[in-house]
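Q: Could you write out the predicted structure for this multi-component system? I'm mainly interested in how the pieces pack against one another.
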Amino acid sequence: MAAHPTPAVNEPGAYVEKFDRFQKSAHDPSWLHAARQAAMGRFAARGFPTLQDEDWRFTSLAPLAKLPFRPVLKANLGTLASDTLSTLPFAGLQGSCLVFVDGHFAPTLSTIAASGDAIRIGSLAQVLNTSPALLEPRLSPSAPDGETPFAALNAAFFQDGAFVHLPPQHVLPEPVHAVFISAAASAGSTAHPRNLILAEAGSRMTFVETHVSLAGAGHLTNAVTELAVGDGAQVEHVKFQDQGRQAFHLATLRSTLGRDSRLRVHSIATGARLSRNNIDTRLAGPGLECLLNGLYLTRGEQLADHHMTVDHAEPRGASHEYFNGILADRSKGVFHGRILVRPGAQQTDAKQTNKNLLLSDEATVNTKPQLEIYADDVRCTHGATVGQLNAESIFYCRARGIGLETARHMLIHAFAGEIIGRILHAGVREELDRLIWQRLEQHPLVGQPHAPHP
Amino acid sequence: MNSPILEILNLSAGVGDKQILKGIDLTIRPGEVHAIMGPNGSGKSTLAAVLAGRDGYTVQGGQVRYLGRDLLEFAPEERAREGLFLAFQYPVEIPGVNSTYFLKAACNELRKHKGQPELDAMEFLELVKDKMKLLHLPEDLLKRPVNEGFSGGEKKRNEIFQMAVLEPRLAVLDETDSGLDIDALKVVANGVNKLKHAQNAQLVITHYQRLLNYIVPDFVHVLRDGRIVKSGGKELALELEEKGYDWITRPEPAAL
């Protein structure tokens, strides 16, 4: 492997030097060693994106670049009390719960529900130890399409994450819940979780990914989740990003869908100072359906960015995107929705909607559809709205005796409820509904002046 | 003893500086049904809006007393809790808010205001079942978001259904007949008639006489250019139907 090209990151030394030390201490199989090396090369070559980069025009990473880079190579699991877990979202959820602290599996805090011999649920690091050959094709050295510099950084540094393997026709009735806790106290602490979900032909499952912070200082979660949905498989992925207000959260969810499969992706972002979710969905088989559904609630100085790529590669694929944002104070929302319809992907049905509710005059939204259509028999629609609560709706509520504040709550909750209501798994949906309601109550909902009545 | 529910005294109101209502006087007592008729632009909907407290209207003079108190002092929700109900000319669709949830919230706001215990989901459903039959409303409407995807007739029936549940002292029906075919009109009128009793009152605002074939008013007032230019009994409505609004002499222009 060639030496690293001249790195473009703000402090190249810190990243490359940390990487070299990390590789020396790791006991990776040689293919993984090479893959990490290649990934580090890609990161170093591209460095931190700037506002000049078209894909990062509205999301400045300057505050993150100022933090030191401290990948947490060994977790201090002792700092976490088990009763902390009971206070976290989805604590009461049935099924398996995999707990990761700063990107490292915490077996004593986790519960793996018995699910038959063939189904594997656990830690990626353990699989790397016991059956690395299973992972080699999945963690290959080539760069995936649309890889962000941070996904490359994750490929260089990841150590652990959730691993789920469902053989053909297997059904997991209860969800698998992976909780990622940022706990390290020092500024710049970085976790690189790497999740791999393999749902083979005809299998069914629900995967819930929660990200929370116990740490107060500025920290980074740089996550990658790979989802392989086999022919005819049905997968629901629910992500709840609820990190602390000092956190940076960068994530990629990369899904590949087989023939006649069904994928429902839900991305709910309430936390972090800055969050960026790249959701890359490749519709790689004919006749499949995918739902990409999301909600972001921001306040203070928060920024939530969703960057979607839906790649229709085969005919008769349907993709429906619904993203709603509720923004208060000086917070910011970014939505970029790219839909690519490749030649031959006839009878594609692609729909994209991004609706934003601004609760203050200072909140801003940048929303941008990007349609690239190379087939002629397709139906692609997109629409975006940015606005305030409908005054007529508020008056209608008030004219029925419902007070201004309650009316506003009701309408805002309904706006969020449109998204939450699309989650199929009842237990997950109800818990999220409760959590979102709770988060909305913390929002400065009643910021608008009470207009004098005549 | 039979003190008025509503007293409008020389009310002037409009939008910004523009005067639309130019001195309205009207007294409504318990048990009475009043109809306000008038051509487009006469100020009918402005009167309804001012009574309900809609934003964007300014009261330029006069008084409105409701159950002996200054109605204009109250916010829209306080008026509703005190038993004033406006059936909207254009009922609003509220996506994402379930009809049952909405109406239960409204109902419980009114009950709280009266010092009554709130109804739970079961009790509320019991309450609404009969009222739905009254308005020939399919039960699945209650499971849908408020007015979303309702037909014109369903929206208007839903207004009267809400009125049936909330049992107002004074109901203001703003052009409830507009956009209804004759069957829907009969259903709505029948519902309104059944809700009438000695202690409440109704103010029916309409352009056309035909609603008054089914809701028989005790008093008919003709509104023209912001003033009530003629008042009479139910026969006045028939006379208007026959002769049109031009039959009534235009009032003297307001002295500016």
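A: Regarding packing and overall arrangement: The mean pLDDT of chain B is 91.
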